[in-house]
Batch of 4 targets.
Target 1
Amino acid sequence: MTAHRQITRNDADAIKPLPIRLTVNGEISDHLVPPRTQLAELLRDRLHLTATHLACEQGVCGACTVMVDGRPVRSCLTFAADCDGIEVETLEGWQGDELMDRLRAAFTRNHALQCGFCTPGMLATARDLVERLDTPDEARIRNELSGNLCRCTGYVGIVGAIREVIEERDALRIPPKSPPALPRIAAQGFAPFTARADEVASAAPAALGETTSENGWTIVRRKVTLDHPPKAVWTHFRDLPSVARCLPGADLSETDGKTFAGHVGVRFGPISARFEGAGEFTADDATQSGQVTGRGKDRGGQSNVEGQLAFTVHEGETPATSQVDVSFRFRIEGVLGQFNRPELVNGLVDYILGEFVANCNAVLSGGEIRESKGVSAWAVLRAVIMGFFRRKG
Amino acid sequence: MKPAIFDHLHPTTTQDALKALAMGGKAMGGGQSLGPMLNLRLARPDSVVGLSAIPGMTDIREERGKIILGAGVTHARIEDNDCAIDLPPMLRHVARGIAYRAVRNRGTVGGSIAHADPAADWISAMTALDAELVLQDGAGKQRRIAVAGFMLGAYRTQLAPGEIITSVEIRSQMRDAHWGYYKICRKVGEFADAIGALVIHPSSRFIRLVAGATGAQPLILTQLGAEIAASAQRPREQAIRDALGTNLPGLDPVKLHLMTTALDRCIQKVIPA
């Protein structure tokens, strides 16, 4: 048990490989695996079982699917260190396996392989389906096969082969392993009743603002309310260092008030990124509006971000409050860009904006920025959630 | 891609796991969501703390009127009802719709809830089922929290640093509940574009209508739910659209349509036309 060992990136060399023993295609072997080794990598690079293909490495394409203890799993999403004591079967194995022999024959008969890249994963999934499904229902087979992509669009033959082998299995009177089907109950309605008060419901108002996508740019628009008069807010906003201080994770390394260099660290669930970059800042006192334009690169240069933040300060509902129209335009390229699910970007922007507004309010009240650490970050977060920061339309 | 270098710990007790997490480790259940993020190097933790070796994490049992699912129970086991008790049919239905079988064989219910992806199934389904989470911290202190309200936003939850989910509990009564669950995905198994979930248990006067895949936490439509209970009729599509519009202002029209459709279809499964 190594849980008590403190790990930092500097002593990464000290991370010890873990010993594992596994049975692959009936042969036992021992390995010392660095923790980041995927099962797929172990199979391909150490055991030279290269039928297991790696493609998306996100669990979507299915090319790396192998059997672990008789169940299909993604070998790209399985760490070798978690595999001590397991039994693995790959395309090279399944020796003397009747279902697999029948599947191979059926794949050949149905021309179910074209370039062959998807085939190892398809066969692993197919074997599971043939073993599990109670009927050769085409819709069900196609649904279950949705986790295995074939870029030759050869599904017709593959589905046909699976159906044939399920029929062969039935003819041999081998029972399916599927559990009893879900009871299918038709909608029956119910007698009207008075719902009991649902006290938890009010705690979860999910609000979204406007997010659009134009020519590869994501544009997020928000209106936020600050608990201070427009003049004070503008004085704060026209001063780049004071605004930057309120932006969680941002750090200006140099600035002359108009141009700047620095970094922004972003933590979003398990995702963390640190963008280093530079940009320009303009502010117009007449219209009380400003603009920050910047470009940055993620650690290791794997993602680029380009963005523009524009804001205008107006009077709020009362003269003692301000409404700030904020618009973010940004474009992410590279690894992070692959993960560009706009709704999540929305969530991230809301989170950062929430903290930013809470910080601005705190600074304008003459206080200090709350440390974004531990318990206090929690308090800030809760304050934001509980409506500390009101969002309008 | 190969993940950035990390240490991988396999604690065998909750206490050891919590110590490792307190030192900055990232908890991993089945790793089916964290795995892709590691492979893409979006997540670069110094250490990963696997929770699968902790005893009890994979138990499914029933006591004191509650069905208790260990946080490490896989989606596939729920799909197959692979346990000694009967699971509520809604759980099995939802489990079957999660990603792909190969992912369901490793992905866990607790991991999915802790990860708090807005498009994930359990967070919405368990909210509709009025499930509770049992959380444990490093001092061995347990607390209970409703799944409704647990999620604060995309990837953000009420889980405190150094705290883990040990189990998910559902009232046994929920076996008899009327339920509807409908999700819209661009492709089977992909991230959901819209989720509708409805659970009605008339004898305990419980009804909960939930819109999931909002981009943030699931939305509980209390008012519309109460109206459905009082009338036992399907609301008109416009009423659903209005309820969503009120609660999620500024929603993209396409998204609004998808969510309206998902809710309408989940209600149809309970209340006949």
Target 2
Amino acid sequence: MNAPEAAPAVVDPASALSRLAREADWIGLRLVEETSQHRAARNGRPERNQVHGSRGAMVEAVVDGNLAYAATSDLSETGLHEAASRAARLARAGARHTVAVFSPGLRPAVFGTATGPCERRFDAISLSELTANLIAACARLRVSDRIVETSAEIILTEHSSRYLTSSGADIEQRFHLVSQNFMATAQDGSETQRRSLNGPVARCLQGGLETIDFELIYRECEQAGREALELLDSEDCPDDTRDLLLAPDQMLLQIHESVGHPLELDRILGDERNYAGWSFVKPEDFGRLRYGSPLMNIRFDPTLPGEFASYRFDDGGNHADRQYLIRDGLLLRGLGSLESQARLGLPGVANFRSAGWNRAPIDRMANLNLEPGDSTLDEMIASVERGIYMSANRSWSIDDYRRKFQFGCEYARLIEDGQLTRVVRNPNYRGVSIPFWHSLKMIGNRESFGIFGTPFCGKGEPNQMIRVGHASPHCLFSGVEVFGGGR
Amino acid sequence: MSFARDAHRLLERLSDDAFAALRPGEAASLSLSGEDQTYLRFNAGKVRQATGVRQLRLELDFRAQDRSAKFTTDLSGRADRDICDLRALLARARSEAASLPPDPFASPMENHGQSEEWHEAALPDPAAVIDQIALATSGTDFAGLFAAGPQVRAVRNSTGQRHWFGTSGFFLDYSLFTVNSADENKAVKGLLGGTDWSAADIAVAIEADRQRLDQLRIPSRTLPPGEYRAYLAPAAVAHIVDLLSWGAVSYGAWKKGGSALRRWIEGEAPLSDKFSLRENFALGLCPRFNSLGEAAPEQLSIVERGALKNLLIGGRSAREYGVASNGAESGLWSEEQLRSPEIQPGDLPERDVLKRLDSGLYIGNVHYLNWSDLQNARLTGMTRYACFLVEQGEIVAPIHDLRFDDSLYRIFGTELEALSDAARLFHSTDTYELRSLGGSKVPGILLSRFRLTL
């Protein structure tokens, strides 16, 4: 299953950059090529066989201290030259009205390469074999006639980029990425319930085919099918306030929405106000704000092998390192690129990222991970007199300052007197970010640590959909408002 | 509009070459989407990020012996190179299709006719736009996105079908912020769009917004959760209509258990006889043809006075469930989405909205909607921007943002008291991957009770 063959790239990036250099005071050139195979089966039949190929360049130009961008899929000398001229014209047009003056120091003159993990290349499996596996997974999901729909989906992506600047950067990176989505829908009369493996497309990792273990997937599909039936036959989640134990596949969303986005420095700067919103975090909060309980340790970690948004350099050429954002509950650092750090005068991280060749980079969380504690899952459950366990996200909503959230999960079980008991359906919970994180009272150890991600983090104007990774253990929160479905 | 004319010529050449290379028993369709846009992002009245994007994306849909494979690629715009790439994709498609099982629900390639639609407009110089926006918004805290340029959508197939839609225009989607005496940020939102950019229009709009900002400088009132009488302004209603595209009126989603309005579709729960919804392509916001080349009716009633008239049906659902397609299109997130929805206005004069509301909430906009209980059509989201407490027909104070969680069966059903007599047009401002087409036209709605939860 090789990527589709096409004519080789016509551009030599280094010589292209040298030809563009005269167009502006400073030039950057980012070439991106990506092939994404989307393979899916539904109810045991092929549903989707689609290969997305993408190839293009973004030219950055600085004129009179103002940086602007132009993207083109025409990689010929003429095409790149036209893009550079356009970027220069836009830079000149905005120079009198720029938010921030550009300094070449914002693009470090670094040289390097990075390649993500990939033990088994995607071409080690034939399309017919992969399709047969997906069809077999559908069969495993269908554990009963009451399973009315099954779907199995795998996305295999090869991504490469090259970034060069007239100030000396030359960076090449290449990654293999795998996303999985397996889901069963159960129906009985007027009731419908869905169960998937960790929530829709939460299983996102870097790597090759070694990240896909179909024998394990088959077993998990059978379990998901059974759990969909359990949900069908269960009562609604109660409406009250109780302790909440969240699985790592829901912590992914909790971290993403109530920690990741509020800490993005471009949100704090107001860049995002017109679209996704601002942040409750203020510049003066760094080093002072008690974000959560002392158990809360969150790191920006672009180095965890296999996590979905690992990389060595961001799209501005900044070297990516692990950094504590929140340590022992104290807010230390934001998620901001060199550009935002300069505008705000605060420390950040290497997270200047773009969704593709046709979008300019902005501040983006990448891998954002909650560090394990020392509790076992059994200990956490045993500590709860009256609580609920929830897993696998299915609904997400939070306000534009990232305070008042409401999230829903696929699956839940009550915790009564230290024991997991009945399954309940339509579980939701809501809260306010800072009080919620202060209610974190136990945190799972490394054995309960799960690594997930999503390809669908939306942000920016023009809009960008980008990959993020989130890893977390199980976490126990006290006194959370929970509720179920109903009219 | 040379970008669109060039794209048209390129598609002709690519199609002719690809279709000539097909073997007996094979069929293919080529869909083109593209844009030559200038995107200007603003913060604090200044340019945050200016980007020009020129892109053409081609999708090849290949069929052979009931097998189906699809490929997308970015075109360079240079015919020789793109023909070379497309030939490689065709060979690859042939190989992939041969290794796949039959796809029984793939719609056969058919000739759904020919159409060609051009909406050309002169576009403003970005430098002039930047100066004009800076001048008009001087002294305000302005953030937003300006997008302008030609967009194309087209589909041709090997049976002779060819449809083309080329348009050009702009939108300016913006927010104007202020800080009230309690040091709270407050904002109003505006949206301008169309074919002819006018500096005078933005100046007038910003001036009107400055007046509205005055109402937001009063410290906000904190309200407890509960049920409130409420008026949702058209911008808020447009967000709710957006959510309907997440499967609510899709035939395929209904059959698969993914429609939020299943109980209404199956006659178990009513919607208000005041509520009528249709797809109205006469609004001219997007092409009627879908990626199969099927043309939707110019107007397709979905809800008429609360009663089900049609669900959206695309070719794949039609084939799977044995029904007739009405030319619906699927999107990135779910199948059979609304592209040009219109809610019929009612009889509540806009000027009387506060008087008729009497005491309750004026909700200017909402944010980040999602289903909280799909089976019961319950949705959640946040109030945003200009939202006010109203008492005895007068605005008393802005409110602190509140989370709502309520059902479509109440919003468009039991609690729907009136719709405003004027519907507003909202051009789509989505720009994921490329600028979207489409939009909606909706009135405001007066609700007897609206559930606020946090």
Target 3
Amino acid sequence: MKKEKQSIAYPVIFLSVLTLVYIFVLAGLDFMTKDVVAQNQALELEKKILYVFNLQDDYTTDDEARALFSERVTTVSETVDGEAKTYALLDGDKEIAYAVPFAGPGLWGSITGYLGVNSDFTTLTGIEFITQSETPGLGGRIAEEAYKAQYRGLDISAASDKLFVINRPAPGGNIDAITGATQTSKFVVNMVNDDLDTFLKEVRHGE
Amino acid sequence: MANKKLNVKAIFKNGLFADNPVIFQIIGICSALAVTNLMMNSLIMGLALVFVTGLSSFTVSLLKDRTPAHIRMLVQVLIISAYVIIVNIFLQAYMPAMSKALGPYVGLIITNCIIMGRAEAYAISNPPVASLLDGMAAGLGYTAVLLAIAFVRELLGFGTLFGIPVLPESATAWTLMIMPPGAFFVLSIYIWIARSKRIKQEAAQEKGGQR
């Protein structure tokens, strides 16, 4: 036994066997929970879209959220951009608002999210971030209610030159930037303006 | 195992008090500082550590006679990471909100010195069941300290315990407590108290011995 342990082959075989055993166990567990995890992720996205449309108070349970999403929200197929889809809020058969995906660089990593805009493109309905890795407590506060609430019901009908949201105190400013996170605040406003502009151009050309 | 009686009480006393990993060995500090701004996070983190430490110690002990000594650390890390991945999968599937809240710290359990420390200090030279208990005891010691820190931080920082408001609305939230410095203050105060108590005890014992 002692001699075996000192050979070169024994440690290699030992480690390979052990690794194989664990790979099978972990792969099995991963396979078993794959559907649940995917469901959780889908639900999270659905809840975020509902938040963008200001419908976050219209459900209490996860099942109600799913039902509400499938009843009121539809994907706008013609503006599929990569993986991020544009969603529309339905009232009967009429589309009354859109959730427009936006993406761009943040301070530490890319930021993605959805911006809600009503169907005559005069008012924002809300904003929600899907991924962001900004500094917690500073730039990370873009994901907090106090910041996101500023986008709710924001009037953008007077916006010109693709400046829909502007950080205060610049002239025409309508969003309070986050203190100590000037860069993040700038990045967010820029990506929101750019991607909303692109979306509006596409829609208007389509008409 | 046959000639050595399993002393469950001593194992748990060591893990929880006498050899508490965080207070006396000062290991596992990183996550103890990171996740303790909410009691619920601390509890889940602690339970995850109990699970991982217990089972990795158990497995390391089971394999100790077959493991070549020079690759034992490799084997230990492999075993530990497998259990951490299991915890991570479980949280993602059944507690997605908690998985989000703990974020990278679940994965970082792999680097938690407590687990490797127990594997090296105890499991490698003790029978499996004793190692399992020893690992769980160390995990519980860690959990206890985490909860103690989180109690102060959540109470003063948010005015809540396990998310239930306990302080009146008029109480001003102490934001420092939910930021990293708060953890440093609370943990060092605990270590200070525990250590001065121990020094006193040891002094008393020495005196008693001399007489």
Target 4
Amino acid sequence: MALRTPLYAEHARLGARLVPFGGWDMPLHYGSQIEEHDAVREHAGMFDVSHMCPVDIEGPDAQAFLRRLLANDVAKLKTVGKALYSCMLNDSGGVVDDLIVYLRGPAGHYRLVVNAGTADKDLTWLESHRTGFDVEIRRRDDLAMIAVQGPQARELTATCLPREMADSALELAPFHATECGGWFIARTGYTGEDGFEILLPADHAVDLWSVLLDAGVRPCGLGARDTLRLEAGMNLYGQDMGEDVGPLESGLEWTIAWEPVERDFIGRAALDELRASPERREFVGLLLTGRGVIRAHQTVLSNGREVGEITSGGFSPTLQRSIALARVAPGLGETCEVEIRGKPVPARIVKPPFVRHGRILIEP
Amino acid sequence: MSNLPADLKYTKTHEWVRDNGDGTVTVGITDHAQDALGDIVFVEVPENGRTVAAEDACAVVESVKAASDIYSPIAGEIVEGNAALADTPDAINTSPYGDGWIFRLTPADMGVLDGLLDAAAYEQVVADES
């Protein structure tokens, strides 16, 4: 049987369409995916993301351990609460998972939040590389996680938090977190909008969800989460990157800390080799100029020749057009075609993100 | 409970058929089908004059989630695709039996209509699926 989050009964009560996702039964939408998408762009929406897995890493060697395991460098985290996005790579430079790591204490306390479908694999990977490091790795299945996103998200969330928590939450800079009484509030998210991701004891989740609902925050499912993150140009693990395709060909070069050169993180040698290769594929955005909807795995063509593959595609409610992320041969120029049901449909190559903070960032 | 007009015929693949009384029929997808698909964002309707066999995939409905083939319930010749769906694909969500119709065709044999499901039989198909 699939796993259920502490909010499962709430989803059912709200009429959610529940679907299997990464071993969990999760809400796809509560009626209209597009209305939920628009609520996040224009007001505030919330997502039950309790299926994602927090992992606490502590101990004298926690920093050294994560500097070995992650392609980004946790030594950049100098103030408590600061967050960093990183890939965790395998030896061939493929992605074991992508995650956010937060610095929780000056004494090398870290919290990772990893994907639902990869959590077991990640834990095995972390455990298998701990030899020689004095670290404790603790999976936090006792925590639930609610993301509140949108232009009104922070203000509305603050009205739902105890006073002292609300004040420190409202003071948070982007990509920072604060903690109080077992609650962990981070100004991070996966929609291209401002907002919070709140980790809290599982038995508090229904209460917070209910007060957010009363405050007018719209419940949103995984469907809207996917169209929002696609518009925001954010990668989805297993689709835009994975164990066979690393950060250099997935638009994630910005997350690799090449300096200092002495830091020998797992996958570094493979990345160095690919970095110098003229064959290295580019990761681009596409805007469909013809009619139809681009879907993952469709073929990208240039003058009738196969030049790449769609990694994520769909309909953008904000642009009212189809958009996509694609991995293509280098040097394509400005246009291409996407093969949709056997027919080439014209598209423009653009630089993601498509939408950020409610604003369209590409020429229509 | 989804809306199932008693005067229509249905298929196992969730199309409905209305006898227009002038030798043509109108085809769309059921209320149950549009609800299962979610927000519909693009529709490809068949060209006029195209000859189709029963169960031919002849239109495509794309929701935010996925593309779905729509099958012709009976053999015949397409006489009209619903051009308005190019601008308002969501009419299938809001009015599956009205403005959201997908195409009209002239059946090769009108008698075939009798072999399609009635509302009660279709309701059973839906119940068996869930």
